[in-house]
């Protein structure tokens, strides 16, 4: 019988998704994401082969004017941009492979030896926040925590930052039944100020009053994150073998209840995350300490400066003034660790499942998520860049800067394609579509290596994700204070209706129009789609 992640009672309203089951079975059997038998079936190979064959037939049968003397310089410009972007992608792939196959296996060997020799942490503290999660979800999360405590026998405290009595009753009832024979303590802190950040701050203050040892481990996790087996014995000994290590973040897999296309999109994003995280970890840093599941050494987390940053992290902006961050607590913890020059790692073989329940078509949820992720990246990326490359590592500093550059370069190719189609050659858009189909499938082949399955629709989803993400970032650039978070009771930043507020909105709109207009104009001028008149002819 194949192993199961959790024992799910029949009366529960959902089952584990096939993708999550597949990833768990691969993890339990020791397979890696790139192992051939797990995904490259004859059917998948046939699908990819047919895909490339159709692209080849299209190249042979549609009008191809890419090398027409009047527009071939445009092809060279886009080709040069593509070579630069794909070379950067290739750098990440190479670094990721080095970390996964050369660097991390040595770390894992030493960590496993430490664990097998009998070392255990003095104590582990789970810091969980939850907001009106379904009973089924909450009980699955608690089941996974209790399983880890039972398997490791580590003295564990679960600290709950609660916003409502609803979750408290569910958790108390479950733990009374299933944790009474475990070295387990449950502490509830009812927040008196709304928001996830305040809930975390209240929990950390309670920990500080308790007097947690500086080498205890604190696990930050969300109320919808289900731990895969063995996550504690994979993460905890890393801190023992490396006294400089201050934080780790884990692999994630999604259990999605919603439209099939958005599940495919989320699986693709987690594949991108694996590739990027492993590349970043080669520099002993990561670009985010994911709030779903990250483990910290306690010495920083109980300090007043750290707690206040989480509670009241803010940014001063020339247009929007001084405003607090609504979401993005994972980015705040990351930024604080950067200021301390702390070592951070990604643990590719420690897995947490995130449960996503999406109603309707999912388009609104996708857009909201991109706005939240992009806004958090922009708000924190600015101050991270100001720390300088010597402080945060040259490669990581460039990665943060590249996020700013990529959002503009991604918009160049569709601007050029549409401009040439309307102003030069109507058939150019067909060649551009084929280029997108081929290039994104080539990128998807790399992503398949970091996924447990092959999805033939990924090239289209990847391009839409890149284009929409770039557009959302440009939109957010002038609206950094505008925040909305539907996952926490539909929180949103204050939007006043005074004259000053309306003027700021108008200014943000004006700035966005100017930026986009300049991008279009400079792109069309540089590629010689439009030719500026020689001013000397008029004098």
Give the CATH level 1 class of the domain at 89-313 and 336-360: Alpha Beta
Reported for the largest beta sheet, the result is:
8 strands, mixed
Number of helices: 17
What spatial form do the alpha-carbon principal axes imply? Answer: globular
Output the keywords.
539 residues; alpha/beta; Spore Coat Polysaccharide Biosynthesis Protein SpsA, Chain A; 17 helices; globular
SSE blueprint:
Layout: H1 18-28, H2 42-61, H3 72-116, E1 124-130, H4 135-152, E2 156-162, H5 165-178, E3 184-190, H6 196-210, E4 217-222, E5 225-227, H7 231-241, E6 245-257, H8 260-281, E7 293-297, H9 298-301, H10 304-312, E8 314-317, E9 321-324, H11 329-339, E10 343-357, H12 363-387, H13 389-392, H14 394-423, H15 428-448, H16 458-477, E11 484-485, E12 491-492, H17 499-526
Helix pairs in contact: 2-15, 3-7, 3-8, 3-14, 4-5, 6-10, 8-16, 11-12, 12-14, 12-16, 14-16, 14-17, 15-16
In short:
With 539 residues, the protein is α/β, with parallel strands linked by helices. Helix content is 57%, strand content 14%. The chain has a domain at 89-313 and 336-360: Alpha-Beta Complex (Spore Coat Polysaccharide Biosynthesis Protein SpsA, Chain A), CATH 3.90.550.10.
């Amino acid at each position: 019988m194949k192993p199961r992640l959790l024992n799910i009672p029949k009366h529960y309203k959902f089952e584990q998704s096939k993708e999550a089951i597949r990833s768990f079975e691969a993890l339990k059997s020791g397979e890696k994401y790139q192992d051939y038998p797990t995904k490259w079936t004859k059917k998948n190979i046939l699908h990819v082969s047919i895909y490339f064959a159709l692209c080849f037939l299209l190249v042979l049968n549609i009008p191809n004017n890419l090398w027409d003397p009047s527009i071939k310089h445009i092809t060279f410009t886009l080709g040069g941009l593509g070579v630069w972007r794909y070379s950067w992608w290739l750098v990440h792939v190479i670094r990721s492979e080095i970390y996964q196959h050369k660097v991390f296996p040595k770390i894992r060997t030493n960590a496993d030896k430490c664990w097998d020799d009998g070392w255990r942490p003095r104590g582990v503290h789970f810091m969980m926040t939850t907001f009106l999660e379904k009973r089924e979800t909450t009980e699955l999360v608690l089941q996974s925590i209790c399983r880890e405590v039972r398997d490791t026998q580590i003295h564990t405290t679960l600290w709950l930052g609660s916003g409502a009595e609803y979750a408290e009753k569910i958790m108390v009832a479950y733990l009374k039944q299933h944790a009474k024979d475990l070295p387990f303590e449950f502490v509830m802190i009812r927040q008196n100020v709304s928001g996830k950040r305040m809930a975390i701050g209240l929990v950390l203050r309670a920990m500080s009053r308790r007097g947690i040892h500086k080498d205890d481990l604190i696990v930050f996790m969300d109320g919808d994150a289900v731990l895969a087996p063995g996550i504690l014995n994979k993460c905890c000994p890393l801190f023992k073998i490396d006294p400089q290590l201050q934080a780790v973040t884990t692999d994630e897999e999604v259990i999605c209840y919603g439209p099939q296309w958005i599940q495919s999109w989320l699986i693709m994003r987690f594949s991108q995350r694996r590739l990027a995280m492993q590349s970043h970890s080669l520099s002993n840093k990561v670009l985010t300490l994911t709030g779903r599941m990250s483990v910290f050494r306690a010495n920083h987390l109980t300090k007043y400066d750290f707690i206040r940053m989480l509670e009241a992290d803010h940014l001063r902006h020339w247009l929007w003034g001084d405003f607090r961050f609504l979401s993005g607590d994972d980015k705040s913890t990351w930024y604080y660790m950067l200021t301390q020059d702390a070592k951070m790692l990604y643990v590719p073989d420690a897995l947490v499942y995130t449960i996503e329940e999406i109603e309707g078509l999912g388009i609104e949820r996708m857009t909201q998520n991109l706005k939240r992720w992009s806004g958090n990246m922009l708000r924190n990326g600015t101050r991270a860049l100001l720390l300088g490359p010597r402080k945060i590592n040259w490669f990581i500093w460039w990665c943060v800067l590249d996020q700013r550059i990529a959002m503009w370069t991604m918009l160049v190719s569709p601007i050029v394609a549409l401009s040439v189609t309307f102003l030069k050659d109507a058939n150019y858009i067909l060649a551009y579509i084929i280029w997108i189909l081929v290039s994104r499938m080539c990128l998807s082949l790399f992503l398949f290596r970091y996924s447990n399955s092959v999805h033939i629709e990924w090239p289209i989803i990847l391009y839409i994700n890149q284009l929409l993400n770039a557009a959302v970032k440009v939109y957010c650039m002038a609206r950094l204070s505008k925040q909305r978070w539907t996952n926490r009771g539909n929180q949103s930043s204050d939007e006043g209706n005074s004259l000053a507020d309306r003027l700021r909105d108008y200014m943000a709109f004006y700035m966005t129009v100017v930026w986009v207009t300049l991008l279009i104009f400079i792109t069309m001028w540089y590629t010689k789609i439009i030719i500026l008149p020689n001013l000397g002819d008029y004098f």
